[in-house]
What we know:
The structure is a single chain. The protein has helices spanning 2-15, 73-81, 100-103, 108-116, 133-137, 149-156, 170-178, 215-225, 287-311, 319-325, 331-341, and strands at 25-35, 43-50, 63-70, 87-89, 95-99, 125-130, 185-191, 196-204, 209-213, 231-237, 240-256, 264-278, 346-355. It is an alpha/beta fold. Strands 1, 2, 3, 4, 5, 6, 7, 8 and 9 form a nine-stranded mixed β-sheet that branches. A four-stranded mixed β-sheet has the order 10-11-12-13, with helices on both faces. Helix 8 (215-225) packs across helix 9. It starts with a helix and ends in a 7-residue tail after the last strand. The relative contact order is 0.10.
Amino acid sequence: MKKLLIILLLICLCCxxxxxxxxxxxxxxxxxxxxxxxxxxKFRLTLKLAVPGNNIDMxxxxxxxxxxDANSMTECVRLLKSKLDKELDFGHAxxxxxxxxLLKDNVADSTDWLNRRRDIQLVAWLAAGKPSAEAVLSTExxxxxxxxxxxxxxxxxxxxxxxxxxxxxxxxxxxKKKEWGLDPxxxxxQAEKKHYTINTSLVFDKEKSKLALNMDETRxxxxxxxxxxxxxxxxxFEDFQFYVSVDDLHSNFRVYTPANQRPxxxxxxxxxxxxxxxxxxxxxxxxxAYEEAVEKSHEELMVKLLKKLQDENLDPMGFGLDYRxxxxxxxxxxxxAWQALYPELEFQVNIKMKLEGIGVIK
Length: 362
């Protein structure tokens, strides 16, 4: 009799819980946050909702896009619920896109909301949308099998592997905005009519976006940071150019502060690959000369990029974090010392290129 009473009590408790069946939920697969164009509101929240289908063939990814303007993210969600007949479920949202207009202001409010909600994954990918986050989410791709899956394949390296794509997690972006000595960087998704392009990036200070990197600078940053294993690079040689396909890449750096000498950062990059294309005649016995051409040209380009970041007082590489890791004392004193040191920092880039051949053409 006691067991029966316990079972009945558990049944009553379950009837009063907040669980909802799967057919009474809308699954949010992507989140877009823009600056509102209305004068009396701050944000425009756009949600990409997956519409279940009978198959997962190419081009069958069905979704619904809903947007709302309000002064807070919480209010946006509350107003969006009044437009729907099912509960919003953020548990499957793996991509968050900020509009570029919003990133010019302080994004602390929106990132705070994303990190506080218990149903939004901290391993969601973050990106900047151009011209807006809503425009990126509304792009329909003919080859997409599941709503929002194309972006996940791009950033997760489970699909395409590109030297121009920077991947950034939500938790990592939030950490870098708080960390002294390491600035965040986000990829830019350019929306087109039936596709999008990801080959540029935005560098932030501790509050907002401050510098845009073009596609060549983004690729160089990925190489120096060691974010990838495969990349294609070009190098001049005499009166023509050749292109190298790199399939093995390792990078590391260290900040040195020798006594009575100018401080410097040493960046070592090791690459291995094969010449994939050339606009001139190549000879197998000249491989050392081709390797030297790659090393010299890319060392100069990397130093130029690092000085550009230094002039803007930006440090997405994390030189300041490395300095703090090797200098012990009070945190505030370390940080003040680094801020005084960084403008005087020299950069020494050392590249070791190993070419395995000039291709199959003899």
